[in-house]
Amino acid sequence: MNDPTTLVELRDVTKTFEVTPTRENPASTLTVLDRVSLEVRTGEIFGLIGYSGAGKSTLVRLINALTPLTSGSVTVDGVEVSTLKERGLRELRRDIGMIFQQFNLFNSRTVAGNVAYPLTIAGTPKSERDARVAELLNFVGLADKAHTYPDQLSGGQKQRVGIARALATRPKLLLADEATSALDPETTQEVLALLRRVNTELGTTIVVITHEMAVIRGIAHRVAVLDEGRIVETGEVYDVFAKPQHPVTARFVATVIEPPPSGETLAALKTAHPNATLVALRFDEDRVNQAAVYRCFFEAGVAFELVAGGIEAIQGRHFAQLTLALDGPDAAVRDALAQVSELVKAEVL
Predict the structure, then answer these.
(1) What's the burial of 332, exposed, middle or buried (CB within 10 Å: 0-12/13-18/19+)?
(2) Are 249 and 268 contained in the same domain?
(3) pLDDT digit string, tens, across residues 289-305
(4) What is the mean pLDDT of residues 103-113?
(5) Helix and strand counts by DSSP (H, E) for the chain
């Protein structure tokens, strides 16, 4: 029996392509995805992050059946994709909306015409089609742009049209492939806010494919990290940010969370605080609050100053990566750090 809480399931998925052997690479096949397994739960926003060439776009094309897999299985809404004939594939794709980095709008069609296109292909009657287009343009905030052409729109407006078009057939699943990569930071936040509304108000399951950890932090519930065709880490977004387990994940997290100071930054701090002990502390709200840690220093007679780091809020939960300069007798500092190390991760720099 299929688990109703799972909308997409990949099991041991491998995808290879035939390539022309060269002197540098004598192999005749290229493995793009290697035994990938993951589940996307109904109603969630699932993030898939990886560097260029990690296999993200290929994985998306397997989910919407645009590329056949080499081995393993891809199941969408309880149906194994590889078993479907052409009619079944068409029905599957109607249940999967897609938005793209470069918008992929028809410049010869108006905004309303772009949104109506999938409904026209599906044979939806004109009166129903017009009502649905009006509903969607109102939802994405572009009701006044119905008769405007794409080249008259900003990048953010184009992506809103793309989202409206992707939702036209009321899909259960929305795939967002680098949907904010071509947008400025402010517009990115607006588009992410719209996608959150799609998820919460319409109940649409969303898979966000990106190379930007800030996007994952801003929108996803869970995330999988893809590196060289393999899933190297999967988990709740808070857990992945607070406690990354794989070096690739740690590099992504470091792009949005300030790591402990090192190199020239650490040298400058040591110059500025020549008599202090510099210590990096990682706080996890599930274990202890900051007050308990600071009390250890206070009771030991150790003065402390925050010199680097910050506090992050993800999905209503907080964690912090802070660097403190500790000033006091050596024995007192050692005793305080011994107590603190029982509460949080502490590293003397």
Answers:
(1) middle
(2) no
(3) 678 888 888 888 889 88
(4) 92
(5) 12, 14
Number of domains in the chain: 2
Residue 19 sits at φ, ψ, to 5 deg, of: -135, 160
Give pLDDT, residue 62: 92
Owning domain of residue 319: 263-348
pLDDT of residue 1: 38
Identify whether 105 is part of a domain. no
205 vs 37: CA distance, rounded Å: 18
Note whether 270 and 246 are same-domain residues.
no
What is the C-alpha to C-alpha distance for residues 317 and 241, in angstroms, rounded to an integer?
11
Terminal CA-CA length for the chain: 53
Token output for 83: 């078993």
pLDDT confidence bin for 286, thresholds 50/70/90: low
| Residue 103 is assigned to a structural domain of this protein | no
Q: How confident is residue 233, by pLDDT bands cut at 50, 70 and 90?
A: very high
Please, what's the b/e burial string for 13-30 (b: 16 or more CB within 10 A of its CB; e: otherwise)? bebbeeeeeeeeeeeeee
74 contacts 82 by C-beta, under 8 angstroms: yes
**For the whole model, what pTM was predicted?**
0.85
Instruction: Report residue 233 as tokens.
Output: 């880490």
Q: Are 309 and 269 in contact (CB under 8 A)?
A: no
Q: Are strands 6-18 and 71-76 parallel, antiparallel or unpaired?
A: antiparallel
Helical H runs in the chain? 56-63, 86-94, 111-121, 126-139, 155-166, 185-202, 213-219, 237-242, 247-254, 263-272, 290-299, 330-340
Q: Is the pLDDT of residue 259 over 50?
A: yes
Taking every pair of Cα atoms in the chain, the longest distance, rounded to a whole number of angstroms, is 81
36 and 74 in one domain?
Answer: yes
**Using an 8 Å Cβ cutoff, are 138 and 175 in contact?**
no
Burial class (CB in 10 A: 0-12, 13-18, 19+), 182: middle
Residues 178-197 have a mean pLDDT of 90
| HSE-up of residue 27 (Cα within 13 Å, Cβ side) | 7
